[in-house]
What does this fold into?
Amino acid sequence: MAMMRYAEALNAGLREEMARDPNVFLFGEDVGVYGGVFKVSRGLREEFGQSRVRDTPISEQTLAAMAVSAAMTGTRPVLEIMYADFVPLTLDALINQASIYEYVWGGQVRMPFVLRTQGGAGAGAGAQHSKSLDAMLCHIPGLKVVAPSTPADAKGLLKSAIRDDGPVIFLEHKLLYNLRGEVPDGEHLSEIGRAATLRAGRDVSIIASSRMVHESLKAADTLAAEGIEAEVIDLRTLRPLDLDCLTASIARTHHAVVVNEGWRFCGYAAELSASIMDHAFDDLDAPVERVTLPDMPIPYSEPLESAILPTSQKIAAAARRAMA
Amino acid sequence: MAQPIIITGAGGEYMESVTVVAWRKSTGERVKAGEVLVVVETAKAATEIAAPCDGVLSKVLASAGEEIKVGAVLGLVGTTADDTGTEAGASAGPARAASGVASPTIARKAIDGRILASPAARKTASALGLDLARVTASSIHGRIKLRDLVAVTPRPAIGHPSHLHLERAGPADGTPLVLLHGFGADTNTWRLLGQQLGASSPRIAIDLPCHGCSPLAGFDSIEAAAEQVAATLAAHGIGPCDLAGHSLGGAVASALAAGQRACVRSLTLIAPVGLGPATGLTMLHELAAAATREEIERLLPHLVAEPALLPRGFAEAAAKLRSGTGLRQAQAALLERLFAGGAPRFDTAASLGRVGCPVSIVWGRQDRVLAASQALAAPATASLHLLPGIGHMPHVECPALLARLLMLTTGSPAHR
It folds into this structure.
């Protein structure tokens, strides 16, 4: 086990996959000479050359179309979109090309590309650079969407995403890049579509992803002091959803709190809640509690921003409501 | 002065009368303001009528199935079971108008007469054949939850391998006092206390696993023992209770009150284990092995402050109850499991931190098994009673005093 930061783990994952497969190449704004604005691709241009680590102009729509074309012609592109807020510029390529081509051409093409991006609030980055658009991306059948919460999963899931033969959206969080954690040595792959139970508990299942996992773990500590034993599940993959993990947990705890940093209405938490009701209705001893961002732009003012963000206190309060 | 239980425009102001579906409390039972007493049905909905004040359900004036006028008095909540007097002579009955009294709280109103219950509670009730109309919702949301079914779960066949032996004493009605004995003892340990408690409340003494007439299989954790007690209470249909435990039984009682498997109204701990180190472990090992009057008598100076003051024949009776070889071996093994390395492998203080009901801790100042100073590890909300001149067995050494303290904690009307 090596201790490394989330950004370093991503960097190691990229390096290993590029060394392993000459078809893997990176492109995006400032990923080359600058090493990425969050330093995820630092040193890779020097190591693998500028044909495999390409700086591009600021044109997300074109970049996504390039990823689709390159994937169709047999390479494994890894595209970085600097902020998730600008992923909507790539949606035509995702909705009308990447997610449907294998289907409309009867399996004659594969679409092995990864779109890396980072989202999330809490950095005072304002309404245009703080969003979590999980729901918008998870809405599209044919895409896989992963969102690691730890350095180990950052590396393991990125390597799995690069090896996947379909399009994978890889959601990082700007406040996690400096998070330190242990990463297994050697070849480390995390299975896409598999959630992890990070803390066992008999009373209530708290289901979260990305940075919200850490808020949920804090909430579980608070709740434990009050005698409520919370189980914390890190989804790791947002789509496909690991329903078996959720339903097994709720069959034990009978209470669910779903947490997502995105908006509430039509949000990812709403989908989790509905899926739980579809598959575990008779196990529920209380309505599913949702903890989300309110439906509003993310304020630039840090006091206002922190007031609207889902926090461990809000998660604990939701768990208490469920248990009451 | 008793307060009338009344219905106003339950479920629709145009209604003239309602039908009593079921009483959730019986005459003589203690009730709290806002607690559901009775369910009535109108043409549109089942409505719950809540207690207007704290007290005892002293009179029921309309029984299940009866149709009565809106505004009628359904029953009375008095300060005691005998308190049926009202300012206007409400015992005159059902047609009295509802003026000048607190309006009842409608805790839970289901649309179309449906009872509000969680999906899990509904599924479980259906599987067990339980009638949800008989279940009281404890949730602040007014919804029946899984935990509410415990009180009405039918009693399974006796002899279930994990169920514990229990003995009942005292009156049939009222909130029972559940008693959990200490290590090496059994239900008989409560006899002297029982004489003092008399007819104050029903009593249910339980033999812990590996003790008395309960299965000899031990337990690996205090929580596991608490779970077995909870399952036994549920199997016997025992709902809300006052709970008291001595020594090891105190630790089990704390775990039981801290969990959600039983509805515990008050907790009295008598020299509970688990608040600090056990100093008398050697003595406990000797107790586990003790089978004769002489062996017990040798241990008495450790257990009580003044062995000479114990009732005659105490050691002989205790020895008789410990004559089974299997029992002694099982208890010795249990001791090893629970106190591996000398320290208790459980944390009663942590359990107490999670207990929401009133907690009293009673400790003999001369306790030589567990020092009374351990009581200081209890949360600030617990009341402490430190008894001078008493050892580790207050229920045997000073049963009358302990009975008074118990009734103070349980709020028994006889001693308020």
In short: The first strand of chain A starts at residue 2 and ends at 5.
